[in-house]
Amino acid sequence: xxxxxxxxxxxxxxxxxxxxxxxxxxxxxxxxxxxxxxxxxxxxxxxxxxxxxxxxxxxxxxxxxxxxxxxxxxxxxxxxxxxxxxxxxxxxxxxxxxxxxxxxxxxxxxxxxxxxxxxxxxxxxxxxxxxxxxxxxxxxxxxxxxxxxxxxxxxxxxxxxxxxxxxxxxxxxxxxxxxxxxxxxxxxxxxxxxxxxxxxxxxxxxxxxxxxxxxxxxxxxxxxxxxxxxxxxxxxxxxxxxxxxxxxxxxxxxxxxxxxxxxxxxxxxxxxxxxxxxxxxxxxxxxxxxxxxxxxxxxxxxxxxxxxxxxxxxxxxxxxxxxxxxxxxxxxxxxxxxxxxxxx
Length: 344
Hints:
The protein is mostly helical and 344 residues long. The protein is built from 13 helices and two strands.
């Protein structure tokens, strides 16, 4: 096969929707995680002089915003296996897409962890003294995944992740609701701000993983890169909580929004798009009882000339020389000049 044939084959493959969605989730998750993990690396390795907890929240929040801009028009830029699961479970997306989305997210997150490791390798070795540890004053595993602080227990952390991810999903449904025009065109920025708000207000207890795709792949990378099995054993085997709890929380948050808000959102009036239908609607409400040129249309407040009667209604086609009788039909009530039809 020639190079031209290879390029053509690759181009045709990339045009297939499942592959496009996979690549979109891969790249958007990669972008989010590079910015997010990079901000954590600054906080940990910079001894809080080059980074801060607020910087971590901003890094992840606006990393999400950039990810939405990268892939929002292709896959929706989930970047979160819990969000993808909820979309499938609530019938908003086919289950056939679930493995495609999650695989793209996991590979993007894993690749981002490898990228940050490569970029900050010298700083990691200098800070840790060459020993890669999970806990302690020179621990560096927390750059890549979340770990419970001393004041938290496993099940308190579980409930914390359920609640935080529920808040995330509930707000995501509100932001992306097509019946909520206030956010149209600004969803990417508002979603990023939402992540920042969750971090600065509720993030200290469990590190607000709120995303299996954010936590598990980088944790697995640290296992391979030299941190060892302790990345799974630390915090009473904490590793499974950021995988399971966000899925449960997102599902509950989505149900709460749909039950209490989404299904009760009133539909807005729709415009009459068909010009022919609009003209028929105008004709049907014009008065048919007066021959006075000063008759006023309830729609346009303009005079209706008598010479236009045959054009307005076939029932007013006169026979030459015959007098025109007044119609017994009463005028239709006035109609608002808003060109909207209410749905009930």
